[in-house]
Here is the input.
Amino acid sequence: MAHRRILLTNDDGIEAPGLKALEESLASLGDVLVVAPEREMSGTSQSISLHTPVRLRKIDANHFAVSGTPADAVILALHHLLGEKPDLAVSGINPGANLGENLLYSGTVAAANEATLHGVPAIAVSHASRKDLNFAVAAAFAAELGAKVLAEGLPPGVLLNVNVPRGEVLGVRLTHQSRKITQNIVFEKKDPRGRPYYWHDETVDFGQAEPGSDYAAIRAHQISITPLQADRTDYPSLNHLSSWIPSLDAKLNEA
Here is the structure.
């Protein structure tokens, strides 16, 4: 494993405890370069900065803070800081789960997905709780999984989304992304001038978790590993929806 190069990033900022725990653990696998947002960018998904300049602050030879999003950080690392592709990219450790439909919003998962788009094997790691945060188990497991990926690789266009439960861990499960089992909640408040503002939150009904899903694994106190595709095409639907094309094409030609 000597001389392997690992890119480490997150969506919680360069000073996040989860990032530091992950860096310490991954150091056993190779040379770690940390390129992360300068502040928390949770919920930014895979957005990139198109209307403002992105600034890069060098902390030391192995640590860089980026003024933009997690995807910005990965792009700068791959196309500016590194002369060649790293052997592995890891994003995390996020405080809070990235399960089910929340993958669509997650900056943690998006950073790993950005690396995957550039042909770099990638892992996203989250601690499935915001309470009693202890990143030791997640960090150690990320190093074990990272070693596996370095040794055996990943299928092209596939990244691994890892969620580690709080407290006792009873095993590891390969899972699929859950359907939506959360309920969105919007809280309306008033500012000092009487104007309304809103906070988003959600509740989860674990009783609806499908067997084999990421939520079911966390409920069973197992580590969830979900392989995700960068290519979001639903290939079975190509065949199913192909019967629509002749009529749509005919209507277009009539117009």
Remarks:
- The first strand starts at residue 5 and ends at 9.
